[in-house]
Amino acid sequence: MPLREVIAALDARYDPALAESWDAVGLVCGDPDEPVGRVLFAVDPTTAVVDEVIGTGADLLVTHHPLLLTPVHGVPADDLKGRLVHRLIRAGAGLFVAHTNADRAPGSGVNAALADVLGLLDARPLEPTTADPRAGLGRVGELPEPMTLSAFAGHVAAALPTTVGGVRAAGDPDRVIRRVAVCGGSGGSLLAAAAAAGADVLLTSDLKHHPVSDAGEVDGPALCDVAHYASEWPWLPVAADRLSRDLAGQVEVAVSQLRTDPWTWRAGA
Amino acid sequence: MPLREVIAALDARYDPALAESWDAVGLVCGDPDEPVGRVLFAVDPTTAVVDEVIGTGADLLVTHHPLLLTPVHGVPADDLKGRLVHRLIRAGAGLFVAHTNADRAPGSGVNAALADVLGLLDARPLEPTTADPRAGLGRVGELPEPMTLSAFAGHVAAALPTTVGGVRAAGDPDRVIRRVAVCGGSGGSLLAAAAAAGADVLLTSDLKHHPVSDAGEVDGPALCDVAHYASEWPWLPVAADRLSRDLAGQVEVAVSQLRTDPWTWRAGA
Amino acid sequence: MPLREVIAALDARYDPALAESWDAVGLVCGDPDEPVGRVLFAVDPTTAVVDEVIGTGADLLVTHHPLLLTPVHGVPADDLKGRLVHRLIRAGAGLFVAHTNADRAPGSGVNAALADVLGLLDARPLEPTTADPRAGLGRVGELPEPMTLSAFAGHVAAALPTTVGGVRAAGDPDRVIRRVAVCGGSGGSLLAAAAAAGADVLLTSDLKHHPVSDAGEVDGPALCDVAHYASEWPWLPVAADRLSRDLAGQVEVAVSQLRTDPWTWRAGA
Amino acid sequence: MPLREVIAALDARYDPALAESWDAVGLVCGDPDEPVGRVLFAVDPTTAVVDEVIGTGADLLVTHHPLLLTPVHGVPADDLKGRLVHRLIRAGAGLFVAHTNADRAPGSGVNAALADVLGLLDARPLEPTTADPRAGLGRVGELPEPMTLSAFAGHVAAALPTTVGGVRAAGDPDRVIRRVAVCGGSGGSLLAAAAAAGADVLLTSDLKHHPVSDAGEVDGPALCDVAHYASEWPWLPVAADRLSRDLAGQVEVAVSQLRTDPWTWRAGA
Amino acid sequence: MPLREVIAALDARYDPALAESWDAVGLVCGDPDEPVGRVLFAVDPTTAVVDEVIGTGADLLVTHHPLLLTPVHGVPADDLKGRLVHRLIRAGAGLFVAHTNADRAPGSGVNAALADVLGLLDARPLEPTTADPRAGLGRVGELPEPMTLSAFAGHVAAALPTTVGGVRAAGDPDRVIRRVAVCGGSGGSLLAAAAAAGADVLLTSDLKHHPVSDAGEVDGPALCDVAHYASEWPWLPVAADRLSRDLAGQVEVAVSQLRTDPWTWRAGA
Amino acid sequence: MPLREVIAALDARYDPALAESWDAVGLVCGDPDEPVGRVLFAVDPTTAVVDEVIGTGADLLVTHHPLLLTPVHGVPADDLKGRLVHRLIRAGAGLFVAHTNADRAPGSGVNAALADVLGLLDARPLEPTTADPRAGLGRVGELPEPMTLSAFAGHVAAALPTTVGGVRAAGDPDRVIRRVAVCGGSGGSLLAAAAAAGADVLLTSDLKHHPVSDAGEVDGPALCDVAHYASEWPWLPVAADRLSRDLAGQVEVAVSQLRTDPWTWRAGA
């Protein structure tokens, strides 16, 4: 099957029109006229992931994070990212990015997958798009049974890939959590939306000291922080499975087993 | 002793001219003509810290973080920060901030204290000011003995206040660390300076996924992340002690024992 | 009655949504949970007015001009405005501002009061808001009887508080005035709207040389300049009376008798 | 004498390089190759002043205020300013502007003339240029004898042309004035410089409510406000006389007797 | 007939509301109350064209290009453009500009005239205005018979005034041309619109190397470049004839016979 | 010889620090560690030129114009420029750009080569860099013998590659030319510098109607316009020869014989 048709299937699931204006989604390298037999899904286009693409003979790498979010005037091989482009092109493998469009996609996107893996009921976008109330950033939904914040942190730790940082929570450990807001990736800016939606906790990543400290001073959702990688990983098997089915099994799909969370060690606490 | 003289002593140690143009340092509330008998030092001006000020009868609270970094048109008491201003003014207590000027101060500032508590030798600023090579952001210095990255993480955990997140490291745990760069608070932007200084590791806080992931793809310093609060806490006893001596013991000083790191719980990992 | 309810009554009259985006209206200091027995109204929150608040035991000062139009990082007592905040907070008195929202308010605002005190008939906004044609900046209305520009200046002088600068007019003193445009405060930018409304004169304050000179070179309204304070003063008794009635007399109201026009002397002419 | 040589003489006195970057100085219309016999000086290029140019057969009008400060795409005669250009060109008369360059000129400029007419001793610029300490905006100098603020207002009224607004003063009428700062035209922004220079009063024009009100709340200079026209008029006879002498009497010079202050009437006070 | 009525007729044909926001259309000099007997049309208001205005006793010059596109603070006669203003005003002649409004005019504008002179059928705007689909920039229409690109270049050369640069074409000389897009003046930015309209060629002027080179690398319209002057000249006789008829022959009209293309010589090729 | 060493030789001749801040010079694709045996020089990186690279087995293409002046988020093969990147990478060929740094280079750059091919004596930069008076944009020099403008146009046509547009001149064909200013590429903005240098003519490319028309109205240099490609071509053999010699003949060099001027036909004139 030509790459062109694989791209069409991905674009149908993750409409590029849903991406932020500053984003860099779509095909980074590869020739739409060449055939694709095997597709690998990963969060980050790192060197190790490209090794896996080439080592496993994949023809297409689909990642959530853009390789070239900052635009470039060239892809020379003495630059980290240019070297990956050279290796992929010479190996005949393409790279395709679904980033904020995958975050916002209504049915099988990053936030929908995160809500599903946590078992949230009746999940809807925290920040719906104006055109489609089922699409948008973040999700908010209900836990099947209330639990304390400390129990919720444990529930999250069990549901997501293990990382060295684990799951941090800010708030009274005994607070009862019923309604949960989530946002894959750096979602601290959705705190006001989570509060407006009546969420008892917002789960996201890359939270910094000052907003968490301020949040602790006012009534509002507790906060839960996980590795950026961990919050987006649940999308990979969903996206791989959907693509396989959308293309009636004509391409083989796989999810990278590499942990691309960059933290390798923890001490203390 | 009038507050005016206490302020003069603090300004002499932490020259306001060293602060960033966007910063908000100096006296937030309080009357320079009123007397000060007891000064409390803390990282953050939170509600709990203000409770401690009032409960212990302190006349002045000195914090590292500004209460009103975003400027305001009023301090009404139904706003979190306005309420703290009302409580302090009514209790006759002042609030004084030494933020990026304390970060840059040459001898007894935030970064100097962090380097000292880790035992770094020959520490000098990572980003010196043009006027004074002994002043500036961050510090870089040498460990007395080389150690692995995993051992270094343990060393940091032992030297700094305990927090639920502990100490995370990115890089090969067996990498040998000789030269250490540190930056109290959010210092990810100093990575290039740390690399240029030949540091084997940069220790700071509030590091997000993308820069850490990119750093892992190139040669350069390993990274070590601690709680923002923990990285700045070592300054408190140093500053309290200096002020006491600068004022010949005419004011009583104390360091808040409250942990203002907002994370309260951790699960997983 | 708690301050919260007094604020609600003021906000109902002077909807904060009518304020300019750059404005600073609402509660500047004070605790909405504390009781209010007496409210003082003034144009400017000066030191003398705060003396009057404290001297007369008022619990709330309502002014037209903001104390902190330029936002601040602190309210230290060695700053003029910070000192007023300290004095009010320690005296248990709040400060509430109704500025451009009071200018635009439909029924009992600054411009409506100015039109009323001059006896204008059928007054309507010069620059209506899009949402409500009865609200907006300035007013234009008809004199009961035509009069010359010089007579109109005398009429204005008699209707408004006396100030050292008096009332200046630009235009032929014998010009007949039938339709009058007014704008409390600095309203020179409404000249084109006054011309479009067919006004024979625009009365406002703070007019500078160049626009007045240019206006004299073309057909259009004559101009009349009074003290900024004088143009806004008529609102004070109206607002005080409305608040008293809105709260069914449960708070005592008073209008400051201090003249806050800063000019103290005149010579020549 | 060709207009070119008259322009050269004016540029030598009022160096165009001293003008603000936003200003519009120099020749507005007229042909440098045509002869000039008579030059008229005025503050403003109004219709009445152009009538006087044409009625008296002047070949050049020199004004302080620019005709076309806002640049234009044409000078059609159905526009006020375009009509003046048509009338001047058809009458063979040029228009030359010396504005902020005349304000800053060291020896015979607008501010120097204002200081002289008030009898100030040892007058020097309030805001000197970096290149020449004798040039710059405003002047500050000493009165030969101290006088009260009310007496100073009377002194100003006697020294400057009479206008309907007269002279307004803000401050204690009995305050003793020794050192005087002046700035022809709209000079409110020089208040800090006047304070730094130790002035007891700043005399300027076009002062608005808020800065005068704020100035009244702090220690600092008293304020004195006169008509913009009146503050700049003293320059006219000085400039006319200097030009006549610079050109050895080869051109006839005259000062317009028209009062271009636009205020025509005053009532009240 | 007063100039005012001639302007009204021109504005009716070339609605000023159609002009770009940055443009400078309408009356540049002249008095709407003075009579007009003869009108001259030209592309550029150059010195030679003004000589022709004065030499032929015309009362109004109508040009396509603005004299003062960059706005001015004066029109002194020692400036090229100021000198032309002086000469026109003294000769009693007005200057009127119809620029981007004439480009966009639906029926007798610059682009409509260019399409007509090339014999295009069913011509419609390339970039219609939102308000009127018959108005807008450029035109696209059909040739009566297909021809090769080289034949089309010859057809253009025969239809437009001769210039030293002639007609340049980019593309395969044997490519068959059926649908033609045109834009008088600098129309390179309309290439995407021409491609979207299915044009086989875009004819315009002032094309630079890079966009033409890029266009040659992709499928899309061929390009044809003529002198800017030549592309706009066809409008002159159309506009002159329309004005004569609109005013029922009460003014005499003429088209300048001067070639205002600035290129005077060609060598090589 | 590794590509790294070829790049070092090119950077030594065409210092990247001389490039404009907006430019995109240096290696676009290719691996500095791979060997280079043959280098091809061309003005533009077009499809035909890349065909030539691959057809002739060149390992490196050096062009004057950047392929990716507008930075990109990817180089997919369904984009014109991405396809060229894929073809070059798969063929093992690099692309290197020397653009405004080659324009400014002192001894063997684009402008120096253009001055040389025209036989100018004592050529120096029109716009020297501050650091090195021998480097900079444009050149100005003397003809060995004066000639008329029409003869000069013929001289240029004979010296540069033939293009369909030939050489256009603006000015009196009989004007005598002694001093010549040149600027390869789009150099119209250097007209003022050419006038200041006393040049009788400025030769450049991509000149548009309005600046040429304005130049014809004032005293100043005549203008001469050639194809952008033609003005930069003379650099190719110079650069190829210098590189060959700088590398002691260890790489083979060649100059593309393709004419990358996009104009293919001319009619009329």
TrEMBL record, chains A, B, C, D, E, F:
User: What residues bind a divalent metal cation 1, as annotated?
Assistant: 65, 103, 228, 232
Listed A to Z, the keywords are: Metal-binding
Molecular-function GO terms, alphabetical: metal ion binding
Q: Which InterPro entries match?
A: DUF34/NIF3, DUF34/NIF3_sf
Return the SUPFAM superfamilies for the record. NIF3 (NGG1p interacting factor 3)-like
What are the binding positions for a divalent metal cation 2 in this chain? 64
Which family does the record claim for this protein? Answer: Belongs to the GTP cyclohydrolase I type 2/NIF3 family.
Q: Subunit structure, briefly?
A: Homohexamer.
From the Swiss-Prot or TrEMBL record, give the protein name. Answer: GTP cyclohydrolase 1 type 2 homolog
The species this protein was found in:
Blastococcus colisei
